[in-house]
Amino acid sequence: MKVEDFFVQGRRGWVRLHEKGGKEHVMPTHHNLDRYLEEYLSAAGIADDRKSPLFRTTRGQSGELTVNPILQSDVWRMIRRRALAAGIKTEIGCHTFRATGITVISKMAASWRLQSRWRRTSPPEQLAYMIGAMTKSRWMKLSGSESDATSREILNLLRWLLLIGTKVYIPWFRQEMRDNRSTRYIYLVLRMSKLLQSAKGDISLWFQGHTSHVFSYKQIADALRTNRDDWRLSDDISTNRLIEFLLSETDLRLVELASLNHANAIAEKRYVWGDVSPFQLALSIKTGAYLSHATAVFLHGLSDQIPRRIYVNKEQSSKSSSGVLTQDAIHRAFAGRQRESTFIFEVGDSQAVLLWGKNTGRLEVTSLPYEGATLDVTSIERTLIDIAVRPAYAGGALQVLEAYRNALGKASVGTLIATLKRIGYIYPYHQLIGFYMQKAGFPESQYNRLKEFGLDFDFYLVYGLKEPGYNSEWRVFVPKGMQ
Predict the structure, then answer these.
(1) Rounded to an integer, what distance in angstroms lies between the CA atom of residue 183 and that of residue 194?
(2) Is domain 277-478 classified as CATH 2.30.29?
(3) The pTM is what?
(4) Most buried one in 194, 270, 284, 456, CB count within 10 A?
């Protein structure tokens, strides 16, 4: 936080909290916190330095503030020192305070009020008290994750009173519905809960019926809009309310796919029904994406190695290619390392690498069954082309050669050549494919068809070769020992 994140507005103090994903949350402060912060700013002499850190480290044991902000580790050590000084042996930390205090106080206070006041009030007063207690507390939201034993007790009593239908309550409650906004709110919440419980079976069948069990927020919103009548849900049940119910009452769970290399990027939220493979989660990162390179090699059984990274290809928009290829241009382009994607997401115990591939119109992308789901993945022929073009996404030239050996007898050379022509690369990648096919033991009649594309340039098997060997038949520079 910076000094400017504490400010006064409307005669009261406010703080601006910076959360994960670049989100900001502004909230009012307690009057004691107002006083503490104002005294701290005055004593530190930093009130006018609005852009500087609000909480700072000190220089050694001098007590003199530096210009450096306090880190999480600094706060943890401060708490530990003071806990030890107070004789507390339990290893407490920042989150200890989050789980105590207000939760215990509210639970004890609500329980005491409920017991002491309940015995000496009339039925309408009892209902009015419960409505008032709920609307004045944090559990007015009726969130399953936040409700405690007391809130559930009150909610059950309120349900019983609303449903009992006696002459004592019904006329009074009708009047309350007309006059009291809080009563109307609680009634609607109870009504929505009842409708959702009734529709739970039909909603679960809808999720179970999908081949992919990974859903985005938009997909669930579209499902609600399309099936609202069939599920018999009222218009006041929003997508957020439906998701909240499903997370607490069904097999639906929330998974966040965080970007590892872009700290400011907002994590992708996905809603998962039951158990799914990391391949399904990776495919959900971008609509229309498909699995490729080393991942496709594994799924087609061209390698026994389970890939540590999952490669997901999202095609770019169509672009026109122009220019004339020269030998100097090839030397310059392949002198350095291959450019690699920095869009890497954490997917369970794996990592998903998002690639922005050449637009091919999803050429030779097929559906492959895997663990009860259907995955979009490049065909064997398209995969052999892709890994020859970008060997770093397949583990290197030796792993590419191994995949070609395992593809012998499985891949259609005619389909491979037709696919290569339709992609229309400027660089002579056919020389690399022919080299791999020859080394992998493909028949001469098959790999010689690649020579029909022409052998007009010297080319490179991989990027950044320092002391390359040279294969004169295919005019390809290769790692030493592979020629």
Answers:
(1) 17
(2) no
(3) 0.62
(4) 284
